């Protein structure tokens, strides 16, 4: 499906996500577990704030001089005997990849996890090729593939929305006869995928970082599937977003440490690999090495207030602290890139018409900004998106626009503002309900509640009741003024 | 085919950035602080060994410290414990360095032993890796901070040697225990710049293959070796 993972409107996606109790519970568990692991790993390293500044400085420098780093990287890939294709669009990238597979006479393609290939909707394109089999080899991606290509819901844990029973059902279709123990199911997956690895002729991998000064790539995994994908097949196709560079291995090593601690609370991922075109004399690894560098609207962020989003290293830490992600999960966002990073990135890559709601799917609590290992001011970028949508693009049409105009007029005129304060209690009376008196609210000042508010107020009352504002004579300012006149003590 | 569509692509990026291309020579990246170099730099070799053991065992990795003379017996016991061959060994002078040539002969008399051969073809070496119950290799470094061994590919030691066998043992001299990945990467960069290392792949391996993709329950051995053993040899 590419960048968009749903055809449903935003509100329907959220309603569907809210009904998925297992996904909701598993996301909460993941967030809580990862919080402890991540913070412990960072604390153990020490000086985390200075590490963040270091990581930011590397990524900002690369983005600022991106054309030069890409030129250096591609020159060095070529020197090693490899090939680089610069793709402006997803169509260009897909055409190139399919052509390479044809040229290589590839029949068995193995893939390791890659967000960018999902952005290309590459799996679907590969499925359409005659006589070509495709296998996603990351365990989570494998589960999604075998469940009729279900969509991922997390950057680091793509199948977080599935429980062991669902996985058990999926694996039974493949001939698995064991129980639903994750260890047993993982062993079955190992055997199933190993057989296909050994017949693979093309490996497709992502790229955590491309090393500019040596023309090799850096891959971080825990399973080792990327290492098999770059060892066994004769051809390797690396698909990378254009911003995923570092100057040298020295900076890659710094980023690998920060990525592992931020993504999964490990010091390093189990496998940190630096690899490229096979060197003469070696017998495995890619004899034919291709790198596809994809723009797909990333360049729209360059030179704008959104440039900092290109610093992202896809650790997913911002998802793991986000209260909105906790409630609506990955599928609620409807984008391949969910959570705060997705709410910033998706409108840039896919446009405001498709992803314009996402910057508003945030409480602006700034937990994402606080946890980002490369200091991306995520919540500020969300505010900037809102500014663009409302001020520059004037996208807030209809009743919302009317309401905001009324609020604007009312709050900018002292007379109107005072009138609004005077009549707020009366004005909201059509939506007011008296709650029955109970033991818990017996002493409360006001049992009048709005349970289904008008217009924008409905956004609040959809999830909780709104107490009716007091009558004008009971307002604190009015009471205070009256009290002082009577010579009362202001204390 | 080599590089396609580059100039148009990069010119567009430069235009978006509002600056001309080819600025890097006068604006190279300067490391902001020396945290990578300073972290754990105060540890003595004995402290690094203790840290390496602690962090490796937490992964979990089986960790041994032996004198060179004890190494052959340990390897024989290991092979027996893991159910025997086929073994996959690299073609390397390290066996002679560690005085393991007699062990090579004796183990070959009892078990099926295959070597990753520089003059064999791709299919032959991959087949040897595919059927291997045990893979043994020599590491370039052991990183104390993370319990990681590092290996570089060469004609006598392919990539798949480290990933296809069911059980994996890595031998590393005590003098090659360093604080963290920073020191290992600095060495690899220096060797490559000096033309002493021409490798297409450098692997940092931190314990056995694992995954938390089903309900976040950690399981080992999804793709790579099911278990990993490090042997630190006192040199």
Automatic annotation (TrEMBL), chain A:
InterPro entries linked to this entry: 4Fe4S_Fe-S-bd, 4Fe4S_Fe_S_CS, FTHF_cligase-like_sf, LUD_dom, LutB/LldF, NagB/RpiA_transferase-like
Alphabetized UniProt keyword annotations: 4Fe-4S, Iron, Iron-sulfur, Metal-binding
4Fe-4S ferredoxin-type domain mapped to chain residues: 302-333
Taxonomic superkingdom: Bacteria
Name under which the protein is recorded: LutB/LldF family L-lactate oxidation iron-sulfur protein
Record keyword Isomerase present: no
KW Iron-sulfur (keyword) present: yes
NCBIfam families: LutB/LldF family L-lactate oxidation iron-sulfur protein (TIGR00273)
Automatic annotation (TrEMBL), chain B:
LUD domain mapped to chain residues: 52-233
InterPro entries: FTHF_cligase-like_sf, LUD_dom, NagB/RpiA_transferase-like
Signal sequence extent: none
Organism domain of life: Bacteria
Name of the protein in its database record: Lactate utilization protein C
